[in-house]
Give the backbone structure.
Amino acid sequence: MNIFNKIEKELIDIVSEKKKELKLIQLNNFKGITVESPPQEFDFDLSSNIALILGKTNGIKPFELASNIKKLVILKSKNIETIEVAGPGFLNIKLTSQFIYQYILDIIKFDKNYGSSINDKSFNIEFVSANPTGPMHVGHCRGAIYGDVLSNLLKFNGNKVTKEYYINDYGNQIINFAKSVFLRIREIKYQEKFPADSDLYPGQYILDIAEEIINSHPKLSFSDFKKDYELLAEESLKYSMKLIKSDLKKLGIQHDYFFSEKEIVKKDLVNKAIKILEKNDYIKEGYLDPPKGDDTKNWIKKKRLLFKSKLFGDDTDRALQKNDGTWTYFANDVAYHLDKVSRGYDFLINILGADHTGYIKRISGAVSALSQNKIKLECRVCQLVKLYKKGKPFKMSKRAGDFISAQDLLKEVDKDSIRFMMLNRSNDMELDFDFDKVLEKNKENPVFYVQYCYARINSLFNTLKINLKDPLIYNGKDFNLNSYEIRIIRKIFNWPKVIETASKKFEPHRIPFYLYDLATLFHSYWSKGNEDENYRFINNGVIRNTKTLFIIKSLSIVIENGMNILGVSLPKKM
RNA sequence: GCGCCCUUAGCUCAGUUGGAUAGAGCAUCGGUUUUCUAAACCGAGGGUCGUAGGUUCGAAUCCUUCAGGGCGCGCCA
């Protein structure tokens, strides 16, 4: 259902068949030949560079070749109405109205699948994976929504997707987390002052956890941290995972699978991974340089197991063991990724925050090493989110300490606006998020603008007393579109291409931009009726032209499909 | 110092795996409402695509140089 591919194939078939007549010797498998939308000022449905490419490889003037192709195509193609040769040798194409009519019928028939192409790959997407030592912050939200929508997008395109969350519930941070809760309990019970220590977690939520643990264990005295550690760690982890899951749910996100680092340690999965790496010569024993900077007080020069990540372009080989011989975070993560590899996905994707960029080479190197280069781990980074309120930077949070939590955000802004706005930017650009602007009900707010377009469509159908989902009756004769309808349908032609590009490049932000453009075309058509009666949809309570309803219905399908992928709701009335 | 990302209109950003005269929104200026929702629309001005080279029919897009901004550079997680 991709009109560009369809016409491209038609052009290629005709040119192949008439190769001799066109004096073509080298076809070069038609590499580099495209069919695209021409710039709007040309007023054509499609354009192709076929004559430019083939002209070059065959030493024929592109313009001349284009003219010859044009003659043949007009003669042979049932779908193409006219062709104009333009510029250096582009073919600008107008389709027949019958072909366009059939295409719209297909859109309506495909409905929820319009734009989807057939794929059957399996993906594992690991995202969020926020440390379970506290609530999610705004930066996590961006990665969370990016990962979720990327999953929706890949699913829409026919793939299988597992959404996964890795819980870092092991190591020093958990000890510090439990200790913070312990000290808050001491503070509440015995009025001991909570120390100012940068390793500890000071946030208000620690007090909440402390309160809860005191209430659920009234008999405990909390005199010895070591003795109570297991209990404290377990309860605190449970509590913060509950917070995180509740935030995710409020954002409309549900993971399929939660994988715990603790399980890796318990089952000793690291040894299994190390063996595979050893066998393939990716491991060595060696020394590392002392860390840069002046913070070398805990550093010991010691021989230890290293992963040869230099082989994968990393700055240095990476430690798998700590001073005491236990595994590093990285070693556990390697074991975790072995588990993912062994589950047989076609592709692995990790969504990371900007502060983890330096980790990419070592972990994707590990996946290549573990899978004998059969599986590639793709890592995508979400850049920082800068918060604004009424145009001014907005930083501190009372509850969480030094960051704005997801809850702070969700308290003021609805899920739909957050999701749309977080995606309304390429993921590798910093994002300015203004608390107030996303709630405005006007054109400045793209969420509103697209939703309003859909509400207007519903209003139109309501006025006509037609159900948007009911079949339309029309014989398809005289399917001549006005300039507004042509612009809309040309935009709709592009939808499958947007999906294809967005999936291939993991760039879901293309969808909100596209939907905004599409909404603009509709609002423009709608308003034209204000100045010119001939453009009003309704005349004496009935539709002026049924063909218009076809166009608008197919437009509504694209908006529905797009917003479904984004996970943003579409009110019928506003 | 090193690595990754970014630099496009006054501001915030798109730019279809190299295509035609580089596009939106905001801001500025000017217009549209006895109507199917003006919560909208139409028009105008505004650009050496950070710099300097290179690759070719053709570069914002690919390669190299330099400048500016962000993030990271532990045996932490």
